[in-house]
Amino acid sequence: MKRKHDHGFPARDAIVAFVRAHPGKVGTREIAREFGLKNADRAELKRILRELADEGAIAKRGRKIHETALLPPTVIADITGRDTDGELLATPTEWDTEQSGPAPKIRIHVPRRLQPGTAAGVGDRAMLRIEKADDSEGAPYRGRIIKIIDQARTRVLGIFRKLPGGGGLLVPVDKKQAGRELNIAPSDTAGAEDGDLISVDLVRSRGYGLASGKVKERLGSLSSEKAISLIAIHAHEIPQAFSPSALREAEAAQPADLKGREDWRDLPLVTIDPPDAKDHDDAVHAALDSDPNNKGGYVVHVAIADVAFYVRPGSALDREAVTRGNSVYFPDRVVPMLPERISNDLCSLVPGEARGALAVRLVIGPDGRKRSHSFHRVLMRSAAKLHYAQAQAAIDGRPDDITGPLLEPILTPLYAAYALVKLARDERDPLDLDLPERKILLKPDGTVDRVIVPERLDAHRLIEEFMILANVAAAEMLEKKALPLIYRVHDEPTLEKVHNLQEFLKTLDLPFAKTGALRPSLFNRVLGQVRGEDYEPLVNEVVLRSQAQAEYSAENYGHFGLNLRRYAHFTSPIRRYADLIVHRALIRALDLGEGALPESETLETLSEIAAQISLTERRAMKAERETADRLIAHFLADRIGATFQGRISGVTRAGLFVKLSNTGADGLIPIRTLGTEYYNYDETRHALVGSRSGAMHRLGDVVDVRLVEAAPVAGALRFELLSEGQLIPRGRKRDGAKASAKPSKSHPGRSPRDKVRKPHKGKSGKAKPGKSKKGKSWKR
Q1: Where is the S1 motif domain (predicted)?
Q2: CB-based contacts of 777: which residues, under 8 Å, 6+ apart?
Q3: What is the mean pLDDT of residues 685-709?
Q4: What's the pLDDT band for 472 if we cut at 50, 70, 90?
Q5: Domain check: are 114 and 178 in the same one?
Q6: What pLDDT score was predicted for residue 726?
Q7: Could you tell me if 411 and 338 lie in one domain?
Q8: Which domain holds residue 541?
Q9: Cβ contacts of 405 within 8 Å, gap of 6 or more
Q10: Sign of the C-alpha dihedral, residues 659, 660, 665, 666?
Q11: Is the domain of 420 the same as that of 552?
Q12: Cα–Cα–Cα angle for 632, 637, 643, nearest 5°?
């Protein structure tokens, strides 16, 4: 019998016990059904669940509820040590300690008979199948190794510095190993020259002096145009070379023909991509719907390169693709998921060439909503290859020789269909953050020419919205057919992050009244209130930091940012393995021929793939970011002493991070250099606050800085702050209390009288204690 309170509601421990018995499988609806609660009781049940979440007894993952800190059945973990019995211990690789506390330990069970590729040691990273341990003392989970993802590193990457007497030193490129140089004997240099990027095997590590190493591989000189991206490629162990068997399969592949396909070659599909795109894997077409029941509606066709036709499950190409997980994009090169024969040739929808494709036909109503969809395996022929600005210019009245003939029959209907889709998009109200992306343009020698922020055009939004529609249709079709798939999911923000955001917004007198379910519209309301204000970038940044990170999962818990219940990646199988899985699942579900998802691919195996490709995606993002940092550091290395304007992009107890306005370069201002007084870290305000003067340096503030140090190899910059801080009036609470005036337009983030005198510097250049002026109170 289920334990209930006097008022008919289940006891709190009964709810937690039910959640524990069904990990990751229950939500509010299932709990209500289990305890016989009616619709009228839902509000009270949600209140109880919120209280349990606030107390840390349960947590939400999308619409599902589970015990706090409950790990999924499949997890990527780092093996950190051994217990007193000698058994291996691990912790999850992806874990938010600020949100969830210390990472739980996993005791690894090693069977008597090891499967190939599962022998692990301390320092390795492995994919584990885990379960709750009966005896939770010391480690609440038991795990079994599925496969080793990464072995403990005995190799170091760095720059070779030649010594006069022979031999040399290795200067590591990893920031965490900065200052830990390795000694390389003359006989172990393998001919390395000064400035070479090299890979070194550790020979021995002494208790004193420098550790020793032996050059394993020379990877190129830093003066070469591709050396910068090579650092990230090797540092993150991103596979570059394809196996001979994979290359043989790619070269042996033949173009698709009409066998088993519909003939769409007369349909004038076009590709619209960035001007420097090397492959073109999606094409679009739109036309007014001739169906009298959909008057004013459109039919949109989205055709995606048929990668599944060439990359068969279990093949050498498939093994290479799943290992990479995705393509990686650097300013000077692309490390592709598939060989160029596939990605840039057979699966590139070039104009005038017949290409195999998996396509979706979308029927859009006059209200912009999708009425129906159908998937087709086709042979198509692209009518034109356009870039975004070119297509936009034609619509804006400036067609060229290519777009002129396409304007009325192709481009105008595409934009008319997009205008309808935008109506539904605005009604859906997805998260609308304004975060401009910078692009690094290189000179022919591989050095930085300039950094630009490409203009965001309707052409970009058109392709984006059509791709979202296609992705939704793919997820809906596979759910309807009850086939397993890999979803693209984005969890809603945690209660703690929402609370922290509320506290921050109070300091700006911005309301964030959360009533009922959490929706993107709540965040958009705040973003709309600050549009055009000096602190708009600050609020955009803090709202972004309150959000969860998108990932791949075989379990669907929706996409919060897009405000979609089901969403899967379908539109880029050339560069994302998740999309290839979805293509194979559609081929199997609709009996479309060869290359279908095998019966052996179950929810369990797809969970493993989702965990791995989520990891490779984050690896790629980190490598791309580090390469951009190194390129910019090289670009600015000869400008030591120059002054720049930027915006505070991060506030920590160690100091301030500043992003420069022109280049987007990030650098640190150490807290010890801010002045003569002690600075307190105010987590709520995202600020460092002077204990004596009340001078405040806050996330989002516009500041002037001087570049004092650049470390190109590590991609690190150090700045000196030149701007004065904002003043918090004495006697005023610093916990979000109201102030009396908005920041001025003339000096963003500071009212005209809120000045703090900078410390006076004597002849020695050292700061001396100075006085600060009191400013009048001002409103935040």
Answers
A1: 641-722
A2: 729, 732, 739, 740, 741
A3: 90
A4: very high
A5: no
A6: 82
A7: yes
A8: 458-616
A9: none
A10: negative
A11: no
A12: 90
